[in-house]
Amino acid sequence: MLYDIIIIGGGIVGLATGLKIKEQKQELNIAILEKENELAKHQTGNNSGVIHSGLYYKPGSLKAINCIEGYQELIDFCDQEQIPYEITGKVVVATRKEQIPILNGLHDRGLHNGLTGTRHITLDELREYEPYCAGVAAIHVPQTGIVDYKRVALAYGEKFKKLGGEIFLGHEVIRTSTQKGYSVVQTKLQHFDSKLIINCGGLYSDKVAQMNQVEPLDVKIIPFRGEYYKLKKEREYLVKNLIYPVPDPNFPFLGVHFTRMMKGGVEAGPNAVLAFKREGYKRSDVNLRELSETLSWPGFQKVAAKYWKTGFGEMYRSFSKAAFTKALQELIPDIQESDLVDGGAGVRAQACDRNGGLLDDFSIRENQFAINVLNAPSPAATSSLAIGNTVSQLALKRF
């Protein structure tokens, strides 16, 4: 069978893309191929569950545009499908005076991105929002919330199938080729013919993109593992909702923070350490070939040279619970090492170019036979329906 569109990747972005195309042109034959035996297993199923407001992103960037649009679409979808969520709000806290200018910049950026109600709060107000939090200055962002993104992704998949879309699980793509004006997608189980490939491969998006490109790709996915602790049940009272630090403006991670989870409990973290395997959720997970590819990439070598101090600190916290606790104590001094129990971990697919640039914005690239979503880290889950709509518009131009 010749499909109009094959989508590679059954995470939240691939599912949202399939749904958006089907909603706009239901007669198209579309299949989603997922290598695992379940949907949303990796980045979607292992994230913090935060509904991001759009505070951090450069006005006019794809992240800002898609996060702000996707935020409302996500809320509306959850309402329609009766998926539980909470708009909790969050505080972003400066713990040192030198962070205040960055905090002020975040406040201004939030307002520029339309986050009405984002405001500086006094330390007395901070204690009203989060009684155990310490800092020298803070802002409150009322739009932030929490949800179970795996549940959201599965609902996308169900709606996609009701509209006639097909989902194939256990179909790992091993190669693509072109013949007679269409693409052949070969999985370990069978092949699929398609007029267009949409690559939403997440941690393997660069590998899939290289399959459908003639020239060598100028970016590589570098996997960063984020490790979490959870607060013991009897200490969850220390956190009411979400508490974030002022992020390092030169590093594309938000720093360790506290998140109340939709499924219950409070997470503390994550750190950000190089994963030795693209799907390496434990320190002991190692894939020598993938690690060698990362270490030999010129861009990663430049990143390592530039951020070695930051990277060493993140790695140290990975192996030292005491060091992790100390980082958390900047926000909540009452936190003790004994309050923390092992939590989960996620792996972030971070695109890195040859010159050592860690791509900050979403990256979508087209060629004759494919649309490649090459970089879609956080807030991709919040933005998923908007990203899906962006990709669908590119796809539908071809039909």
Describe this structure in words.
By secondary structure, the chain is an alpha+beta fold. It has helices spanning 12-24, 62-81, 100-112, 123-129, 149-162, 205-211, 288-296, 298-306, 308-319, 321-329, 384-396, and strands at residues 2-8, 30-34, 50-51, 85-87, 90-94, 119-121, 137-141, 145-147, 166-169, 173-179, 182-187, 191-199, 219-231, 242-245, 257-260, 266-269, 273-274, 340-353, 363-366, 370-375. The protein is 32% helix and 28% strand. The strands form 3 sheets. Strands 5, 6, 7, 13, 14, 15, 16, 17 and 18 form a 9-stranded mixed β-sheet that branches. Strands 1, 2, 9, 10, 11, 12, 19 and 20 form an 8-stranded mixed β-sheet that branches. A hairpin with a 3-residue loop joins strand 19 (363-366) and strand 20. Residues 4-393 form the FAD dependent oxidoreductase domain.
